[in-house]
Every structure is written in structure tokens, then in C-alpha cells.
């Protein structure tokens, strides 16, 4: 009785093939803030492996992410703004999924400022490099509020949303573009 069961098990294993190795992918994540934490969390919980991927999460910011994607250094980049910008200028990229329907940022200012016009002549902290999606979002927000972002404010690029929040809290800047969890 044991021999037929063993033979059947071997036939099933051979018929179904052996388990294929997981596909290796590199996923670019701009910063370790709430809206991008799903990728390291998915890796830690084994969700990528469950779907057949051996994922490496690579922290890469701003325009460097687009360059890494175009050169093949990473396979996926998790920020929508640069991918949309890349598609607009004709680069061969595709959006395969989006889990946010708008950028998760707020334009936060010091409490003594009562209107957007109070920002004229002030300095704003941005937690990413020039040309990055937070930089673009900040300037579009200021323009929407009736300011000329190229003339009305100065910018300091801190390359960290946490540093932007802390500098704003300490009064070093008049305003900052802040993502969760720093926007409370």
C-alpha cells in the first residue's frame, strides 16, 4: 500500500513540475513615510513571495528614481508623479497600479501666518530634492493660492519629510509640504 501512494505522490510532483524560483524584482521607494510603507511591509509580511516575487526594496529619491527605472537599475518605482511626468515627455513607462487618488501632502504653515499672501518673502522647507514630486506639488499649491512660486518664496530642500516637519515646528521656515504622519 505504501508503494502505490509514494508512486502517486512522485507522479503528481513530476506532473505539476517543481516549484519555480521567485522572480527577482527591485522596487524603488522614495522615503520611509506612511504612504510608501506598504511596500516594505508587504516584503516583511511575505506578500511578495506569496505572489512569486523575490522583492528588494530600494530607497531612492526624486529624479534619481526615474533614472534608475529608465536604466533598469530598478524594475518598479512607487511614486506616481514622476511616472506621469515621464509619460508626458514620452519615456516608455506604464502606470500599473495606483493606490492613492491624490498626492498625500498638505501645505502647512506657522500658526502666525493667516493667509497664503503672508508667505511672500518667506522660506519654505521641502522634504525632497528640487524637481521631485513634493517640489512640484508645493509650487503648484502655491500657484493655486495666488502666489508666484518662482518669485514669492525661497526654498530649502531638506531631503526628508521628517526634517521638514521638525524645522517647521522649530520655526526655521514659514511653511512646508508635509505628508502623513507629520500632518496632524
CATH topology of the largest domain: D-Maltodextrin-Binding Protein, domain 2
Would you identify the regions where 5 or more consecutive residues have pLDDT less than 50? 1-19
Strand content: 15-25%
Taken in chain order, the helices and strands follow as HEHHEHEHEEHEHE
Helix content: 25-40%
Please write the CATH class name of the largest domain.
Answer: Alpha Beta
Report the principal-axis shape: elongated
Rounded to an integer, what's the Rg over CA atoms? 23 Å
Ends: how far apart? 67 Å
**Number of helical stretches of at least 4 residues:** 7
List how many beta strands DSSP finds: 7
Spatially, the strands of the biggest sheet line up as 4-7-5-6
The average pLDDT is 79
How many discrete domains? 2
How does the major sheet shape up? 4 strands, mixed
